């Protein structure tokens, strides 16, 4: 890959000229007009060389070099100035600046100086290889993620079932998509379903399909998601939330490599690679009888652990910039980046909601921004709002269910028959809901009055 050079100069004409010259020489070029903007870009992506003017509107080039050298001591820096003197040149090179050229400079000399700096400077550390299209949606420079992606690429070549474990919002579906794209099934369908977001009575039909007339409302034959994904990959998100009755049927599908739609008399052969994910502790669920051990071992041929955002903080600036670029187009605004202190606030935030929460924060600041550079104040405001609570759909649904059941039991004084009638559910299903949320009806029954 061509080397990446960061240009820093407040003269737009010179920036354009240098960018054209260096691009023509085969380099990849980024341009900014101030020292602070340069630091922001460095936080987002590390180039192989920095070429900076000495006179900048906020700080001088030597100050910028000092900041770069403190964090990236092997990154070469070349300074340009129209006011160069021998003492300045000596001082700069003594501090470690690779080169120091005065304006107007000879273009050939500059290219030679750049080539020398790149020959002994830091190797490219963040570029993507041409064969990385399979993981293009996963934005990362984290070494932790690099190891995970190497494992994912390796397992993608097999047909083994993969269980992806990680917190809500950490990007489990993106990893599943990447595995599919790197697999021999890449040209076939990738189908995803959230097992916790679909009511139990509908999930079976969604997964396995149904035939016309098999139940009230089945007005036509329906191909299930297993059939839709035939030849490709099926991703079952939040597999830990799948009801036990469906776990039995899923196990049968995996054993027999065929599905029987609801109401059908004959099974239909299928060829599907299964990927699944959960944020739950499946071992604890198994010990409590909430998850089948035989299904667990079928799904868990290979386990990949997706780290939370708090364990890959070097990715926060990269992701924030990536989201900002997408959201700038959505909101039709010119948004160039984050102020350094705003970027620092993002990088050091706790991120309990992981990448989903980071995206929400960047969307809020994008919607409210009135200038191209996002200030610290907007980021702090968005972080305060996000800190109140971040729930996935599944978590929000579970919380609603718990609150709803508690209210019903209080209203009916712990009478399950009355509560089930109000909820328009049969008693068996209602008891199952109570068991799911570890609720005992006896806790809601009023104590008999004590006689005087």
TrEMBL record:
One of its GO terms (biological process) is phosphorelay signal transduction system. Residues 138-367 form the Sigma-54 factor interaction domain. Keywords: ATP-binding, DNA-binding, Nucleotide-binding, Phosphoprotein, Transcription, Transcription regulation. Residues 4-118 form the Response regulatory domain. It comes from the Bacteria. Coiled coil: none annotated. InterPro entries: AAA+_ATPase (IPR003593), AAA_lid_NorR (IPR058031), CheY-like_superfamily (IPR011006), Homeodomain-like_sf (IPR009057), P-loop_NTPase (IPR027417), Sig_transdc_resp-reg_receiver (IPR001789), Sigma_54_int (IPR002078), Sigma_54_int_dom_ATP-bd_1 (IPR025662). The modification 4-aspartylphosphate is found at residue 53. One of its GO terms (molecular function) is ATP binding. This is Response regulator. It comes from Chitinimonas arctica. The lineage of its organism: Bacteria, Pseudomonadati, Pseudomonadota, Betaproteobacteria, Neisseriales.
């Amino acid at each position: 890959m061509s080397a990446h050079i960061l240009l820093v100069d407040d003269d737009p004409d010179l920036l354009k000229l240098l960018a054209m010259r260096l691009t023509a020489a085969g380099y990849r070029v980024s341009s900014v007009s101030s020292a602070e903007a340069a630091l922001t870009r460095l936080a987002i992506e590390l180039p192989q060389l920095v070429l900076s003017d000495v006179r900048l509107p906020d700080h001088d080039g030597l100050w910028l070099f000092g900041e770069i050298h403190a964090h990236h001591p092997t990154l070469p820096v070349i300074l340009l100035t129209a006011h160069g003197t021998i003492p300045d040149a000596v001082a700069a090179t003594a501090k470690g600046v690779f080169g120091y050229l005065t304006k107007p400079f000879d273009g050939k000399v500059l290219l030679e100086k750049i080539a020398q700096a790149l020959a002994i400077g830091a190797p490219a550390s963040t570029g993507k290889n041409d064969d990385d299209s399979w993981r293009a949606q996963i934005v990362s420079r984290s070494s932790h993620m690099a190891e995970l992606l190497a494992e994912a690429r390796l397992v993608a070549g097999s047909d083994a079932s993969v269980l992806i474990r990680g917190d809500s919002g950490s990007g489990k579906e993106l990893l599943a998509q990447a595995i599919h794209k790197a697999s021999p099934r890449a040209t076939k369908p990738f189908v995803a379903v959230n097992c916790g977001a679909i009511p139990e009575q509908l999930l079976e039909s969604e997964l396995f399909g149904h035939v016309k007339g098999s139940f009230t409302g089945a007005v036509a034959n329906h191909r299930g998601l297993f059939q839709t994904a035939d030849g490709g990959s099926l991703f079952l998100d939040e597999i830990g939330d799948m009801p036990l009755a469906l776990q039995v049927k899923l196990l049968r599908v995996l054993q027999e490599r065929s599905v029987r739609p609801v109401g059908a008399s004959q099974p239909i052969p299928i060829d599907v690679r299964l990927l699944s994910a959960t944020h739950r502790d499946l071992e604890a669920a198994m010990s409590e009888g909430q998850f089948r051990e035989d299904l667990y071992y079928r799904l868990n041929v290979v386990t990949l652990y997706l780290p939370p955002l708090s364990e890959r903080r070097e990715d926060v600036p990269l992701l924030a910039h990536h989201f900002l670029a997408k959201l700038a187009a959505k909101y039709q605004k010119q948004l160039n980046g984050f102020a350094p202190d705003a970027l620092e606030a993002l990088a050091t935030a706790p991120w309990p909601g992981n990448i989903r929460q980071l995206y929400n924060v960047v969307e809020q600041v994008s919607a409210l921004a009135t200038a191209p550079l996002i200030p610290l104040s907007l980021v702090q405001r968005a972080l305060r709002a996000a800190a109140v609570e971040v729930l996935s759909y599944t978590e929000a649904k579970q919380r609603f269910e718990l609150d709803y059941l508690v209210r019903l039991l209080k209203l009916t004084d712990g009478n399950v028959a009355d509560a089930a009638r109000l909820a328009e559910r049969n008693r068996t299903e209602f008891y199952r809901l109570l068991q799911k949320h570890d609720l005992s009806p006896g806790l809601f029954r009023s104590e008999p009055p004590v006689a005087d």
